[in-house]
Design a protein that fits this description.
Layout (H helix, E strand, L loop, with lengths): L2 E5 L8 H19 L3 E6 L2 E7 L11 H4 L2 E6 L5 E4 L4 E4 L15 E2 L4 E7 L2 E6 L4 E6 L6 E2 L4 E6 L3
Parallel strand pairs: 1-2
Antiparallel strand pairs: 2-3, 3-4, 5-12, 6-8, 6-11, 7-10, 8-9, 10-12
Length: 159
């Protein structure tokens, strides 16, 4: 799947919700121009990801125009804290394939609590929460590769 990432404020961006809507419109146009299936941009306290509708579901026979409409998949509240991958490796939600995940969406975590493991060069590295709060989203699938700085969890610091 093709991805484009861009950071920095868009030119002449309006404030608040209007800013997110304008950014979404610009990303949707960029999706078509560059023939991308997904684009994600973080600008200050707003992060927006736009995907083509066809990228979310299996392709079925039908009019091609329906598959090319952009779909807003994600907008992150500025109050949430993003836990990012401190290294490149493989993301694991539990200590073993049969164990329960360290955390699930909705769990309250304390600062320093283990959230996941990232395997790098055959070493298992426990990733701890940098803040206390409620896990609102797990952004990576178990067993998937992660890159340095990739968002792993969204945590609401006010449980």
């Amino acid at each position: 799947m093709a991805r484009a990432r861009r950071s920095g404020p868009p030119a002449a961006a309006p404030m608040g919700d209007e800013r997110a809507v304008e950014l979404t419109r610009r990303l949707a146009a960029l999706l078509g121009e560059l023939s991308l299936s997904e684009v994600e941009v973080e600008s200050g306290d707003i992060r927006v990801r736009v995907q083509r509708a066809g990228a979310l579901a299996p392709v079925t026979p039908g009019p091609a125009a329906a598959d090319e409409r952009p779909l807003v998949a994600d907008t992150v509240s500025p109050a949430l804290v993003t836990m990012e991958a401190p290294m490149v490796g493989t993301f694991y939600r539990a200590s073993s394939p049969t164990a329960d995940p360290y955390v699930q969406e909705g769990d309250v975590v304390k600062e320093g609590q283990v959230l996941c493991i990232i395997e790098a060069m055959k070493l298992m590295n426990e990733i701890e929460s940098k803040i206390g709060g409620r896990v609102t989203r797990v952004l990576v699938e178990n067993g998937h590769a992660v890159e340095y700085g990739q968002p792993l969890f969204l945590i609401d610091p006010q449980p």
